[in-house]
Request: fold
Amino acid sequence: SSPYIRFIGCKFLMDDKMKRMMILLICAALGLPHAYAQFTVGVKAGLNVASIGNVTVYPSNPLPGDLESWTLEYGYLPGAHVGGYARYAFSPLFSVQTELLYSQMGYKISIPAVDLGGHVYDNVTGRMRMHYLNLPVLLRLTVPGSGLFAEVGPQPGLLLGSHGSIRTKNGERVGELAGASGPATTFDLSGVAGLGYRWKNGLALSAHYVHEFKTSKKEFIPRMTRKYAVQLSVAYDIKTF
Reply:
């Protein structure tokens, strides 16, 4: 055959080799995550330090001499969270962790005076406790060759219940907080971001910041204010499959 034909034949032969090589590379790339893939289940628990943002109140019919508005300041209320998780690692670098947590949120508010049954109490503190079932879905990025990791993702939540109380300076409970039956929406959606460190034995420590998104135009939370919290957690990987 002519040199041209031989050249064309050689070209076709090289193309076939390249195609086979590309197919092998693609198969290897697709198989790599499955070759590494690890599924881990574990438990976690820790402390919540929670509150809500300040609220500005505008009286509809202010009395003469009254301020047109004032800002209510809220304090932190400690709580707890506990639950389990499942983590799927695509590679040593990337993984996704889904958690199911019972979590306590809440806040404290200072009240100058309150009239309860004809008895006036000065400088009392209102405490609101809210109980949630949360389902955070977190993307985890682990620093190569280290146990240090960062996590970020959404956290849907279901309000299980809430209750409030009014206490005096010495801690005596003197009444119930108005609106305790429903200060927040039943469905909660927050964002979570944090850092942590995991040791080779499966024990991990982490710190997260949780901030609620606005999802309602009716309820006090999150219509006028949003919940937020700092979470400090201890976790342990029970088993890796």
Remarks:
- Residues 40 and 224 are 40 Å apart (CA to CA).
- The radius of gyration is 28 Å.
- Confidence is low (pLDDT under 50) at residues 1-13.
